[in-house]
Design goal:
The chain has 7 helices and 6 strands. The chain is globular, with a radius of gyration of 17 Å. α2 crosses α3 and α6 packs across α7. The chain is of the alpha/beta class. α3 links the parallel β2 and β3. The longest helix has 21 residues. It binds 2-phosphoglyceric acid (2PG). The site of 2-phosphoglyceric acid has 9 residues, from α7.
Length: about 240
């Protein structure tokens, strides 16, 4: 049965600065690099040798995946990058400090923007520093100006169906190095998490989440490889 490992990037500069990040291409901190190396050692201990690594077009995910593969002695694994695995687009909140935003709008509103299923943050105003419409990585793509988890899943799922699921169905093991919310979208899909319960699902940085799947790609077992930094997982479907 195929094994899937979901790996959220290690701590980024804006995780450290507590800023809404989304599609901004910030790098890893030293701590984030160490988390990526440790993730690789955990992959090696688990005897994981994926046929392919999928990642986003953002460097914090790519570097985490590459460093983990290298630490695991798996630098030969092919890598496929696609924007549809990007972090959720944070719209008009992009770049703001999360604590200051909570002081201004209240903790409850910020929790809704950060963790609800279908309430998007306000849209990004066009033309500013964080407007990615002219970025060549997204040329010709229908890129958003804000995203909820639901609309993130709306672009993750077709990519999952077309590119990732067929590899797993063929019996291959797969690594996905991506982001807190693109990975929450995949967890919601695989575990059939109800809309009102996804608010409680958090994915820690740099801690590989191993999921065993049956032939219909239903999870039969799941665990974080670093048990000391594990978060609660949804019930098996
Ligand atoms: O800022 C972001 O893009 C994400 C991930 O770090 O934050 P949040 O925890 O609010 O989903």
């Amino acid at each position: 049965m195929p094994r899937l490992i979901l790996l959220r990037h290690g701590q980024s500069q804006w995780n450290l600065e507590n800023r809404f990040t989304g599609w901004v291409d910030v790098d890893l901190t030293e701590k984030g690099e160490a988390e990526a190396d440790k993730a690789g050692m955990l992959l090696a201990e688990a005897g994981f040798h994926p046929a392919v690594m999928f990642t986003s077009v953002l460097r914090r995910a790519q570097r985490t995946g590459a460093a983990a593969l290298e630490a695991a002695g798996l630098s030969d694994v092919p890598v496929i990058a696609d924007w549809r695995l990007n972090e959720r687009h944070y719209g008009g909140l992009t770049g703001l400090n999360k604590a200051e935003t909570a002081e201004k709008h209240g903790d409850e509103q910020v929790l809704i923007w950060r963790r609800s299923y279908d309430v998007p943050p306000p849209p990004l105003a066009p033309g500013g520093e964080y407007d990615f419409t002219a970025d060549p990585r997204y040329a010709g793509q229908p890129i958003p100006d804000t995203e909820s988890l639901k609309t993130t899943l709306d672009r993750v799922q077709p990519y999952w169906d077309a590119e990732i699921a067929p590899r797993l169905r063929a019996g291959e093991d797969v690594l996905i190095a991506a982001h807190g919310n693109s990975l929450r979208a995949i967890v919601k899909l695989l575990f059939a998490v109800p809309d009102d319960q996804i608010v409680g699902v958090e994915i820690p940085t740099g801690n590989p989440l191993e999921i065993e799947l049956d032939g219909d790609l239903r999870p039969t077992a799941a665990r974080y490889l670093d048990a000391a930094r594990a978060e609660a997982l949804p019930a098996l479907p």
